[in-house]
UniProtKB/TrEMBL annotation, chains A, B, C, D:
Annotated catalysed reactions: L-glutamine + H2O = L-glutamate + NH4(+)
Residues that bind substrate: S72, N122, E166, N173, Y197, Y248, V266
Stored Gene3D superfamilies: DD-peptidase/beta-lactamase superfamily
Enzyme class: hydrolase
Recorded GO MF terms: glutaminase activity
Keywords for the protein's UniProt record, in alphabetical order: Acetylation, Hydrolase
BP term (GO), one: L-glutamine catabolic process
Source species of the chain: Streptomyces monashensis
Record-given protein name: Glutaminase
Length: 312, 312, 312, 312
């Protein structure tokens, strides 16, 4: 397995290499998401993992430079971009409690009058996107600009085929958006909102890109260029929401096994934060029944076990 | 406000003093639980806070030596005692995901065939007690022995008036127990189980007692006498479950504000863990609408803000 | 109160007159639906009631010739029109059980995988409209033709202002339609379907028109012109669904008080069937908290009490 | 198939004979309830059907004189006995709407604060029994006296083996009772209540017995001895509740197919009422997945089709 590195300080590289080897010997990778063709076509044996240190050093193992579909991972960045602009008023429109229900459920939304439980279930991400759209008139464009700047990769882009597929199979998200609109919790036209939302989900990026882009959460709110995106308190808030709500209906299990703030996507990627120390991104397309990458969770579990870097 | 100390190293004492002073100036303390007389009678202006360092040093402010009703805080210890005996098999009978519903809800239990979501909702604690009872024939006695040993306070005891009140108003817990029994998830006679359960909840202890008794979770599983109760991995698991599920339906909010594994009780107490560093217990009887101590959450929020000791 | 009649045999006219007088003396009429302006503007003191005998004789009291917004009453006719074409296959796409939930709830729909409980909750009516649309390419037009033919009133028409208002406030129905589409239970484009659906709901008709149009259900499936729309068994089925599901979450109460198959609309109208004997329509815009006309239910209650014509 | 008759006017006997012959040729009878041994042991090929005319004439086909376990059928009589004593106040403690959920569900009970939806789900029957117990101090004894008097069969009795089995497997009902007690909707001690409830369910009676005992509902409230149990309006109410709620989660389907007020039990019996005309009881132990007798529903369906006696 080829190892590429970009700078000289690679504290965790031996750990990554050991993990990659172990994962390579592990059968059973789950199945890629199959609701859109572009995801279903990925090879479940693919695996990559990257670490970004606080100073922007990034290195990895396996296919850590291979772009994949970020999907729900972008919900973290959209949340941060809106929170930076709007502050605590956001929390009147979306909660920060675990949902206890599948990520696209309408049940809880109905019982709680159109206020989604947290920003990482689809309903909550739609609300966050809607509010960022109101404030910027181009939520997806803002996201893309941010990811490019933080990763230092100007080639990052939307995958229009993926976005088109999402739209074609977007009835569930359309239902969520109209439902919240019926409670007055969506400001923009639903068609416009869904277009913004599906484009965000479609961004293709690599483990290297995403580990770097997540760096501001390990640096307590500071961007790659040294400017502040979030206050220290806000960065702590985003990490807390990631830990309690970041992996769909398996957040408790993830906290229990991995013990780090993390966010997964159905493209098979997972980002994770060691506050004050580093960020990680792992990718393998095969998912468990809850929508999280099988090899990805296993790799992060090994990482915190081997390094003792769990927050617990 | 009188300060009592027991040993010489009191790193966080100035912080506690500052917090106590701030809390003293803050109006609005919520209302004590009113479903049983012994809780309703407590003065919502009461406040105490203690820190226990890893070596057993304990100190505090306010009424940190005053016994109060531990209530759901004991769920942490019962969980640890059963996990130490049973290991991972326990997790086939109780989940470790946040519930997204009030702590005594039957709804989720029905949808998930009698398997409670986590050990800290009442249904889950009943299952843990049932399993500890099967293994020890005296779950409540085991709990009391453990608390006495860890706190070094042999005077700790059940409050029989509280236990009797709980039993008299225990229809909801009886419903939960019978309901799970109908799914085959309770082994003991329901009457026996409820007696054990209500006695556990009735234990009276002070902030000092509870901060000390929680120490094994900061020491990665090691008891006060240096013997091991839990493996390092199990201690991490209990901390993870506390962070994601420890404060009823406000776990996300608690993680967001405090950022530490914690467990609250309707007696107004909250324990919290700074892994590898120290444990805390705060007490003030006035509760918010979710059942957590108003001044207790505020004090812990200030503690992590002032010390930077949040896990995030 | 002026009485108009159209033919000579008016068996129930004295009963209607007595009811109208009693209703006239009764204060408390509920409140008109207020979610669209055209409904909110109606006077809750308005009242009309008509009886149509099997031979097409129709007579009434009060404002029985005044057109009002039919709303959900049209669900009965759309159901009959599709059932006549499709037969029992329809019941694979919509159930015929009471819902036990408010008429526009998404909860049950989610637990039952996109199959609505019955044709009279909004989700079920959307499915029926979708299927009639697939078979006729103009579901709303078919409905209008049918109502004109049965009532003998060629002036019956859609109320375009009402349809436009429904569309403007149609997020909840859009959510329902997209949600069912995500389960594969909607064939047509959601925008097309909603247009058809809202036009149906907008039809304006009088008590006389609707009592006549309902006649086929009292004649065991035979239309006004003597041709058969439904088999005897199908007519019985529609009546059974009306009795168990026709008045939102108050079907049990309606069966208990009135004891006739009936269907209400938020415009304040209610149709009812005495199988083999006659049909009724009553209208008064003030609604109770479950969406049924207060004076309408009271009038039908009195009718079955005075005539002994309840099915029980 | 032997036919026994007791008096001279047997209007529907030829219809019963035809139905018995058809049923005899029909394979597929479902499976007996298996949660207690006494029910599981019954032969699913057993079949009996009886008609009782208004004057007390009773006749039948098949095993119409064979006693079977009445189970939930007794809920009708308990309801009538309490309603006769308590009147409309009962309806403040139990609703009369279909449940839309399985008969022993706790979900709806929780959302509606401990008020069961109707008297025929288990929770509702527990409330009715509790109230009758408060008024008579022997609810089960009152029921037995009533059934003996109406059927003219002094040998009718509880089946103590069945009652003991129900108690042994009674956790779900204990959960329901405690849960409602927690809302203040149960007056008696739960242990006493459950004993009364399970004894009621255990009564063994034949089709002949039950058809006769149901007669007061066809006679608009008049008992076999000519005295009045219920007002005409109350009898209508009970029939309405039977039609909308009498067959668990299949009430809509039963109304649609049979079109008569009816009540089933998991012993395989079903009673039905043709108001003003006659009563029926059919029995065959094999159940469908909703808990209703397969041959029983089929026989009643044929009866209303052949006689045209559906209420619709």
């Amino acid at each position: 397995m080829a190892i590429m590195t970009t700078t000289s300080s690679h504290t965790f590289l031996p750990v990554l290499e050991r993990i990659a080897e172990e994962i390579g010997h592990t059968p059973g990778r789950g199945r890629p998401a199959d609701y859109i063709p572009a995801l279903a076509a990925r090879d479940p044996r693919s695996f990559g993992m990257a670490v970004a240190e606080l100073d922007g050093t990034v290195y990895g193992v396996g296919e850590w430079r291979e772009p994949f579909s970020t999907q729900s991972i972008t919900k973290v960045f959209t949340l941060a971009l809106d929170l930076a602009r709007e502050g605590d008023e956001l929390w009147e429109h979306v909660g920060r409690e675990p949902s206890g229900n599948p990520f696209n459920s309408l049940v809880q939304l109905e019982y709680e009058n159109g206020i989604p439980r947290n920003p990482f279930i689809n309903a909550g991400a739609l609300v966050v996107t809607d509010r960022l759209q109101t404030r910027t008139e181009d939520a997806a464009g803002q996201l893309l600009d941010f990811l490019r700047a933080e990763s230092g990769n100007p080639a990052l882009d939307f995958d229009h085929e993926v976005a088109a597929s999402e739209t074609a199979f977007g009835d569930r998200n359309a239902a969520l958006a109209h439902f919240m609109a019926s409670y007055g919790n969506i400001d923009n036209d639903v068609t416009v909102l869904l277009d913004q939302y599906f484009r965000q989900c479609s961004v293709a990026a690599s483990c290297a890109d995403l580990a770097l882009a997540t760096g501001f959460l390990a640096r307590h709110g500071i961007r790659a260029d040294g400017t502040r995106l979030l206050t220290r308190s806000q960065a702590k808030q985003v990490n807390a929401v990631m830990l309690t709500c970041g992996t769909y209906d398996a957040a408790g299990d993830f906290a229990y096994r991995v013990g780090l703030p993390g966010k997964s996507g159905v493209g098979g990627g997972i980002i994770a934060v060691v506050p004050g120390r580093c960020t990680l991104c792992v990718w393998s397309p095969g998912l468990d029944e809850r929508g999280n990458s099988v090899a990805g969770v296993a790799a992060l579990d090994r990482f915190t076990t081997l390094t003792g870097l769990s927050v617990f």
